[in-house]
Amino acid sequence: MKVKIYYCCLLLSVTLLNLSCGQEVETNANLSQESDFPKARIALAVSDLSIGTHRLAFGIIEPGIGSIKNDAVKLETFFIQDEKNPSLKETLTAEFQEWPGGNKGVYTSIATFDRAGKWGIGVTFETSNGLIARTSSVIEVTEKSLAPLVGHKAYPSRNITHAITNDINELTTDPNPYYPLYEYSIEESIKERKFSLILFASPAFCTTGTCGPQMDIVKNLHSDFSKEIVFIHVEIYENPAGIKGDISNASLAQAVKDWNLPSEPWVFLVDDDGIIRHRFEGLATYQEIKAALIQNNFITGK
Fold first, then answer.
1. Which of 88, 262, 282, 296 has the fewest CB atoms within 10 Å, i.e. is most exposed?
2. Of the ranges 9-13, 21-25, 135-139, which is most confident?
3. Residue 25, beta-bridge partner list
4. What is the pairing mode between strands 132-141 and 23-25?
5. 294 contacts: CB under 8 Å, gap ≥ 6
6. DSSP 39
7. Which of 136, 120, 30 is nearest to 78 (CA)?
8. Which domains does the chain have, with CATH numbers?
9. Among 45, 48, 119, which residue's Cα sits nearest to residue 89?
10. What is the pLDDT of residues 9-19, one digit of tens each?
């Protein structure tokens, strides 16, 4: 079976090596009124943007320097009905989320898109030499999301668990497997009305290079909050033991098909009614996920 997971410019790990998933736009008066640094690039770290409210995650790449890591940046969104006269929609603050290790990270903000089509995102930031600069990028917003949206029913997938096999190599490609993540299937957690955190990721074969760090974050969250919610890891490929280092041997797990995921990793928070309350595409930090768990009353604020 042909593996069909599509990536936006190989997403995050390659993104921070100066790739951008959006078309680069000249930093001009239409989207940027202070154009002291036109060559900086926005490197988008999400690919599934549709009408509605979404977590935007992106890097800012300064030529010859690398990623910008300011505390916060100004983010503007524009609907581009007329490329010469884009319509400003929102002015937001994007916060820098430092990844484990402290060498990389992305900015995140919550943006709302009220129609499908071509949108622009403009960013104002401070360069490494202290100048205020702007850059922008074009993104495509679709009518419908590929992955399940917040507010939708979670699909009751029967992902493989310990009840099916005791061979951990058939459950995950994680080189340091964490057994508690394979106790429940998604179907079981929904039937038993459990609050759940569901991670879709392939640690050993992750194209974005962020699945391993995301696994570690989820393990830490489990250590802190396993008494309140169920944690589930779904391996992207249904035959991890049979891949044997050659991804051409892989076939997608049925749960990944059920959820129609266009990339990896993904984290979903599902409540005791089986409703998706939050979703994260790409690497989400411990702090981001914990804040969402508290906001949606999965855990107490502690």
1. 88
2. 135-139
3. 136
4. antiparallel
5. 300, 301
6. T
7. 120
8. 11-141 (2.60.40.10), 168-295 (3.40.30.10)
9. 119
10. 333 343 343 33
Mean pLDDT in residue range 140-157: 97
CA distance 167 to 95: 41
Q: Average pLDDT for residues 258-262, to the nearest whole number?
A: 97
Query: Distance between CA atoms of 58 and 42, rounded to whole angstroms?
Result: 7
- Quickly count: other Cβ atoms within 10 Å of residue 72's Cβ: 13
Q: Can you name the residues that pair with 279 across neighbouring β-strands?
A: 268
* Mean pLDDT within 282-302: 94
pTM: 0.88
CA distance 15 to 107: 13
Q: What is the C-alpha R_g of the chain?
A: 20
Spatial contact of 61 and 41, defined as CB atoms under 8 Å apart:
yes
Overall average pLDDT of the 205-209 stretch:
85
The closest of 47, 56, 195 to 121, measured between CA atoms, is 56
What mean pLDDT is predicted for residues 87-98? 96
Residue closest to 251 by CA, chosen among 269, 265, 237, 267? 237
